[in-house]
Write a structure and sequence with these properties.
CATH superfamily of the largest domain: Electron Transport, Fmn-binding Protein, Chain A
Strand content: 35-45%
Distance between the termini: 28 Å
CATH architecture of the largest domain: Roll
CATH class of the largest domain: Mainly Beta
CATH topology of the largest domain: Pnp Oxidase, Chain A
Radius of gyration: 19 Å
Largest sheet: 8 strands, antiparallel
Structural class: alpha+beta
Helix content: 10-25%
Order of helices and strands: EHHEHEEEEHEEEE
Length: about 200
């Protein structure tokens, strides 16, 4: 995980940079026409951003060893002894049937929470689902749990391993519910879903 300050780069030819990225990840070029539909070039204009690292976190398992989390009833009280949030999120958006398989399959997702300083913490996570609620397992002491107690907003991104152009991003409000032996499950109620070029 690289936490960084982001600056727009004075790239003299951002289209060529985007083409090079397309070749690197898909083997196809040009980006507009081979990787994404050509007509998007009329409404999307390439920009290059430079990430200047401020912190790097590497190694270790982001979630406890073992299987992906099992569904946990939302009525279980939070693990830290605090009362359940009176403003618990309402039922979230339904997951699109076209992309729900991405969370049903054992694909490692990127899970982002907000740090106390306002920056983003984004690390790999194992996820499962309970209907349209996404589940991410962690522990009471993990930074995810601390971050979500302070700010319940989270984002989960999962990319099809067989087709990197097929992905689903879920922006959600999280509830923390307790499990056995200090385990915690974050229940993510979607408030916005972006799939490839489909916005919900």
């Amino acid at each position: 995980e690289v936490r960084a300050d982001v600056r727009e780069d004075p790239d003299p030819d951002p289209t060529a940079t985007l083409d090079a990225v397309g070749v690197r990840y898909t083997g196809l070029a040009p980006y507009f026409g081979a990787v994404v539909p050509a007509h998007l070039a009329e409404v999307e204009h390439p920009v290059t951003f430079r990430l200047v690292p401020t912190a790097v976190v590497a190694g270790g398992s982001p979630t406890p060893a073992g299987p992906v989390p099992a569904p946990v009833p939302a009525s279980v009280p939070p693990d830290d002894g605090a009362p359940a949030r009176p403003d618990a999120p309402p039922p979230g958006l339904p997951l699109p049937a076209t992309h729900a398989d991405l969370v049903d399959r054992p694909i490692l997702a990127a899970f982002a929470t907000r740090l106390p300083d306002g920056g983003a913490c984004c690390q790999p996570a194992r996820c499962a689902r309970d209907g349209d609620v996404l589940l991410v397992a962690t522990t009471a002491e993990h930074p995810w749990a601390r971050n979500l107690r302070a700010d319940p907003r989270a984002t989960l991104l999962v990319v099809d391993r067989a087709n990197s152009g097929r992905w689903m991003e879920v922006r959600a409000d999280a509830e923390l519910v307790a499990g056995a032996a200090g385990a915690v499950t974050a229940r993510l109620h979607a408030r916005r879903i972006v799939c490839d070029a489909i916005h919900a």
